[in-house]
């Protein structure tokens, strides 16, 4: 089963809102957060550091977001921020803008009510790994029913450390709507602690951990309410499709969009008047403070024919930071 939130994410249409970097109650050895996210109070919309509400809305519009996924931290400050941003995106995009929250605490009825009133649609719980298999009869079972009573769709989202049949029991009992299992991954933020626990990278893979995938699929994979999300899919599909959505929205008429969702254009320090003299249509170039950006194929042609001396083809991400992926000199 794939939930509405996951369906939007698979399309690249889910904005990821990171609201807080401190966890008061948990210190998971597999936490993937890097230095710029762990133990910080900064907010990020996708990869963009947020300075104002307008930054969040601009990022959502940039990618033509279908919904918002919220994650990060446990303290009261994180709850307050989550409710604020829920109200912000719902006011801007309407009730059809799907929202889900990933959390490592139960929170209680009052917090469930606040989240529901603020506009949260779906809540995904991540119980402590040490309690897997012994969640029945605890606050983790209670909160599933409480969340549903307060108008939320309760679910589990867990890292694929190992298979755990108890999650299937919660699904069969009707307590949880679905269970997402994310392929176990190593990152810069958890690599050292993961190795100390005896985990290693899968051969020929940048992030997936060796060992657990087959067991999880054998035990949990056939259940229609379980969805296993691979690290390859996250990187190759979700991230790339999000970039493509951005690229379609921000591209200029002369920008090319690649299959990876990057933008390609030409850049030269030639005198802008040269373009006017050559009769280049205005839609094929734009003048910046100290250079000209132009259709890459046109720049290549102009250099080959001797109309311009040199330049370069630039490939960059369509996100707010606009990181350059590659520069190819032309002369």
Describe this entry's structure for a reader.
This protein is an alpha/beta fold and 331 residues long. It folds into two domains: 4-245, Alpha-Beta Barrel (TIM Barrel); 254-330. It contains eleven helices and 15 strands.
Terminal residue distance: 54 Å
Give helix % range: 25-40%
What's the total count of β strands?
15
Q: Which structural category do the helix and sheet elements fall into?
A: alpha/beta
Major sheet, described briefly? 9 strands, mixed
GO molecular function: catalytic activity; iron-sulfur cluster binding
Organism: Halobiforma nitratireducens JCM 10879
Pfam families: DUF8061
Protein name: Radical SAM domain protein
Briefly say what this structure is.
This protein is of the alpha/beta class.
Question: Which helices and strands, and how do they pair?
Answer:
Blueprint: H1 4-10, E1 14-18, E2 44-45, E3 48-49, H2 53-62, E4 67-71, H3 76-93, E5 98-103, H4 109-118, E6 122-125, H5 139-149, E7 153-160, H6 166-172, E8 179-183, H7 191-196, H8 213-220, E9 226-229, H9 231-250, E10 256-257, E11 263-268, H10 272-277, E12 285-287, E13 292-294, H11 296-304, E14 311-316, E15 324-330
Parallel strand pairs: 1-4, 4-5, 5-6, 6-7, 7-8, 8-9
Antiparallel strand pairs: 1-2, 2-3, 10-11, 11-13, 11-14, 12-13, 14-15
Helix pairs in contact: 3-4
Can you give keywords for this protein?
rSAM; TIM Barrel; alpha/beta; iron-sulfur cluster binding; catalytic activity; about 325 residues; Radical SAM domain protein; MJ0021-like; about 20% strand; single chain; 11 helices
């Amino acid at each position: 089963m794939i939930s509405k939130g996951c369906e939007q994410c698979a399309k690249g249409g889910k904005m990821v809102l990171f609201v807080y970097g401190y966890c008061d109650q948990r210190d998971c050895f597999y936490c993937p957060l890097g230095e710029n996210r762990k133990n910080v109070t900064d907010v990020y919309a996708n990869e963009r550091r947020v300075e104002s509400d307008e930054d969040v809305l601009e990022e959502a519009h940039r990618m033509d977001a279908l919904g918002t996924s919220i994650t990060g931290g446990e303290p009261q400050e994180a709850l307050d921020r989550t409710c604020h941003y829920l109200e912000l995106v719902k006011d801007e995009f309407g009730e059809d803008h799907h929202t889900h929250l990933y959390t490592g605490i139960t929170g209680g009825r009052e917090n469930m009510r606040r989240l529901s009133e603020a506009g949260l649609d779906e809540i995904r719980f991540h119980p402590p790994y040490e309690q897997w298999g012994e969640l029945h009869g605890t606050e983790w079972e209670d909160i599933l029913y409480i969340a549903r009573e307060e108008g939320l769709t309760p679910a589990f989202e867990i890292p694929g450390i190992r298979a755990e049949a108890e999650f299937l029991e919660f699904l069969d009992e009707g307590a949880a709507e679905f269970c997402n299992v994310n392929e176990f991954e190593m990152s810069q933020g958890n690599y050292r602690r993961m190795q100390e626990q005896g985990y290693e990278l899968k051969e020929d893979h940048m992030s997936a951990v060796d060992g657990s995938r087959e067991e999880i699929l054998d035990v949990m994979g056939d259940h229609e309410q379980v969805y296993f999300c691979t690290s390859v899919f996250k990187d190759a599909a979700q991230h790339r499709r999000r970039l493509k959505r951005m690229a379609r929205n921000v591209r200029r008429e002369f920008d090319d969009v690649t299959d990876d969702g990057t933008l390609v254009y030409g850049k030269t320090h030639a005198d802008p008047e040269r373009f006017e003299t050559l009769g280049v249509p205005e839609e094929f170039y734009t003048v910046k403070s100290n250079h000209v950006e132009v259709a890459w194929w046109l720049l290549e042609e102009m250099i080959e024919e001797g109309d311009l001396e040199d330049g370069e083809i630039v490939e960059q991400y369509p996100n707010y930071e606009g990181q350059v992926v590659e520069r190819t000199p032309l002369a």
